Amino acid sequence: MGNPLNSHNQLTYSQKESTTSAFRFSNSEESVLRPPPDPNGPKNMAVFHSNFLVIGSGVAGLTCALKAADYGTVNLVTKKEEFESNTNYAQGGIAAVLDPLDCFNSHVEDTLKAGAGLCHEDTVRVAVENGPKVIDELNKWGTSFTHDHGSESLELGREGGHSHRRIVHAKDLTGREVERALLEQLHRHEKTRIFRHAMAIDLIVSETPEPRCWGCIVWDDTWDELHFFTAGVTILATGGLGQIYLHTTNPSIAAGDGVAMAYRQGVPVANMEFIQFHPTAFFWPGERPFLISEAVRGEGGILRTSDGEAFMEDHHELKDLAPRDIVARAVDAEMKKRGDPNVLLDVRHIPQQEFARRFPNITQHCRDHHLDLSRDMIPVVPAAHYSCGGILTGLWGETALKGLFAAGEVACTGLHGANRLASNSILEAVVFGERSVEFARREGLHQESHPDNIINSVRVQPKRDLEKVRISHCRDELRRLMWDYVGIVRSEDRLKRARERLTTLRQEVTDYIEAGYTRGDLFDLRNMVEVSELVVACALTRKESRGLHYILEYPNTDDEHWKKDTIVKRDQREAPLLPGTAR
């Protein structure tokens, strides 16, 4: 095959070559569509080559792609549209030490305290000390942050767990604004291609002379095709796994894809039991939860029961500014005690003009639901929001598999420990996304070419007649199971029952794939089941309550035995599972 890295986006078929793309991809204003294939004909797998392959288009993926484009060709694969990610829904902001009265040590201490003893201090210091640089770079890339009135200084907010005002924000749409700026910069690079509606299925791994990642197999959701994407460096930036829960602030694509793919190849994952439930998601029957930023409580919002009683002072000394895990459990407890479907967030005492200026998106959402925030309180419930665990990485985003890196929520860098401090997530994504690219460049991994025999000509004759109701039924069962049995407060009995049911679901999904059925939602479900099993396995392993993990049988924290990461590794790596290929 020769060195494929000399030719960017070279597309080869086993029967013929084509100069058109098998995907809808975008660069600047370009959009190319391949004519629909013959639905009755055999499938030939196309091959796309680049120096770097980035999977995911949130802030971590976009940062990686933007930095990598300075050193080589980049293919970025994203599951839906390029702007659909957890980043796009992030309201709060980015934590960075910019106030003269603040300091790095204070931010470090706040992070360590929130992380309940499991943060890696070296990781925390790397992230915190790079905070000002991140803000400066995002400014240079065109991010429009909110400034103080009539001043060139950035407006700094405060959120739960922070001892100072250090939250840089773009009103209450920070994630969307950061993503807009990064995409605008990325579209200017001729060496990058963004492939939309493309779902990564399995990693491509060689066995000798050592296990080595060379890219991944991708499902083209537009034309229902499988293809190879090869690269010297593969960076997983697939985001979170919130869709395994019935109520989540995450978008529909957050199915834990990166964690599942890495785990199948024997890459260690860690701390999957620590699922952060955002304590204040807007509650409206029949609607998907809408995030009410923690910054609302930072600006003075007060949580109340349905009869108007403020309750956080009964749960923590910091009251409404307590860490998220404390607040989420308090809300959950008050709802269960009273049998209420939600609690209330009171902002009536905050000057409404100032509130609308600081939180225009939240204000408009409330108005759309006929809420007058000068008189009405906001109905809120907890919702699955962020995974503090993920693929175990080092200080440079490197994983145990050569050529494979992870950045953003999919990674377990050690920054968050047992509970993420508010607004540390975008900071982490930018810092370790950039460091992943730097490590790969320094080691020359992006210039290495894969063995000639890593990709064989593969024909797949997919079956598409699987009833959608089978997949939707399994998905609904999974999400309800995880919400009811593996939620904010857990018990060993519920966890064990969840494990048994997940085993049955996994076998059903595997049977469908081995029978040759090819559907994007089926691949999605496969990953959701596998990461759910990992969450349950880690939760059953940890015999204590710490941070986001609260289990009734072990209500106390046990530093003597459990002040350590929960690390899970598959004993044997899986070969990529192509439809119709039984193991």
Structure, explained:
This protein has 583 residues and is α+β, with helices and mostly antiparallel strands. The chain contains 16 helices and 23 strands. Strand 1 and strand 2 form a beta hairpin.
What characterizes the major β-sheet? 9 strands, mixed
User: What overall form do the CA principal axes indicate?
Assistant: globular
Q: Total helix count?
A: 16
Estimate the mean pLDDT confidence.
87
**Helix and strand composition category:** alpha+beta
Number of strands: 23
Detail the topology: elements first, then pairings:
Blueprint lengths: L24 E3 L2 E3 L10 E2 L2 E9 L3 H10 L5 E4 L8 H4 L4 E2 L8 H11 L6 H9 L1 H10 L15 E2 L9 E2 L5 H13 L5 E4 L2 E9 L5 E9 L4 E12 L20 H8 L4 E2 L4 E8 L7 E2 L3 H4 L3 E3 L19 H15 L4 E4 L5 H7 L1 H9 L9 E10 L2 E3 L11 E3 L4 E2 L12 H19 L15 E2 L7 H18 L6 H23 L5 H22 L17 H4 L4 E2 L15
Parallel strand pairs: 4-5, 4-12, 5-9, 12-20, 19-21
Antiparallel strand pairs: 1-2, 1-9, 3-22, 6-8, 7-8, 10-11, 11-12, 13-19, 13-23, 14-15, 14-18, 16-17, 17-18
Short recap of the structure:
This protein has helices at 59-68, 86-89, 104-114, 121-129, 131-140, 174-186, 257-264, 295-298, 324-338, 352-358, 360-368, 425-443, 468-485, 492-514, 520-541, 559-562, and strands at residues 25-27, 30-32, 43-44, 47-55, 74-77, 94-95, 156-157, 167-168, 192-195, 198-206, 212-220, 225-236, 269-270, 275-282, 290-291, 302-304, 343-346, 378-387, 390-392, 404-406, 411-412, 459-460, 567-568.
